[in-house]
Amino acid sequence: MPPTSPAPHAPSLYAATAHPAPDRPALDGSTHADVCVIGGGYTGLSTALHLAKAGRRVVLLEAERIGWGASGRNGGQLHTGQRRDQETLEQWFGADKARMLFDLAEEAKRLVKSLIVEHAIDCDWRDGLIHAAHKPAYVAEMRDEVDHLVHRWGYHDVDLLTGPELARAIGTDVYFGGWRDRTAGHLHPLDYALGLARACEAAGVRVHEATRVTAIESEGGGRRVVTATGTVGAADVVIAANGLLDGLDPEIDARVMPIRNYVLATEPLGARADALIPGREAVADSRFVVHYWRIDAAGRLVFGGGERYGHGDPRDVAAFVRAHMLKIYPGLADVRIDYAWGGTLAVTMNRMPFFRRMRPGVYTACGYSGHGIAIATLAGRLLAEAIVGDTSRFDLMASIPARAFPGGRLLRWPTLVLAMSWFALRDRL
Fold first, then answer.
1. What secondary structure letter does DSSP report for 203?
2. pTM above 0.90, yes or no
3. I need a surface site. Which of 164, 260, 306, 345 has the fewest CB within 10 A?
């Protein structure tokens, strides 16, 4: 079968405003590398880049286009810490391991920022992220969390916000208090992915789009990665497909569940943007099904809210997300919605990422549960370290338990729907 050209990115604000990027040709024929990376999102790109810097020959295969999945469609927010809070991690794993996980998360945040600077990635990075409590009872919990970060973990880049202070910071009085994280922040997620791809190619990585992997076979002492238009022979393979695994590995599939999340972008708001978020921080609230938003470089409100657990999207995505937005900002009822889109992300049972050496020479990292910009970028560094020979930090992440979703492939969807529906109901009570 002859190679095909990659399809355009799915319509979104990010696809419409991203810097121009070349079409990368599909794989055509057989080739060899030290490592074959499957997936052109943050995990795959960071892995390829760090391996190339370590002197490895790398081929990266992407089924669609660079940043096609969650890496090019997410809310653009980069948080401090792991997906679960430090107190929970300490209860699960003890103080020493919780400290190592926090230190890795801090490294992840620094790594994103350093890659942006090192490779001159123009992706509208801005510091600042605000957490907002949507129930009065959650204010005390947030206060305890901030106190824990400061006094237990030595993280001082946080400020508590009273209800009135929060209202002035985010332009709405529907929340009861919160906190500001000064070194978290937000960016243009697709431009960040495209910038990583350019850095990969500059380091010698061969990148192929429109190249869907259908099988990973053992071949002698290595692996053979099979696609419709060619094969890659490699000593090691990294599966970095996240929520778009498409059945490539049943064991990963059992532990990493794809779900759909939705985002809209308003028309540019001009001076109204300053009244909403004068400090231009990103915002995320305390709901289990999180509402999150930010003002982008053009003054648009980029607002995420609502999930679906299956493959079908709402009939009208803009209306679906707009209803959530108007609960926060009823004064924006007259504002035009210029873009609305959905995307697939991946969650795990415990909301911590799934790192594993699946079998000799085959590695994965995925299931970031909405926390992927920082942790997926770090995953690439840790995967590269493990392949080059130092497995210690990868093994730390791989030691996190990962239960399979109950019900197998046929019943896990209704089981997840029931569980998530309960949490969504709890958000409203």
1. T
2. yes
3. 164
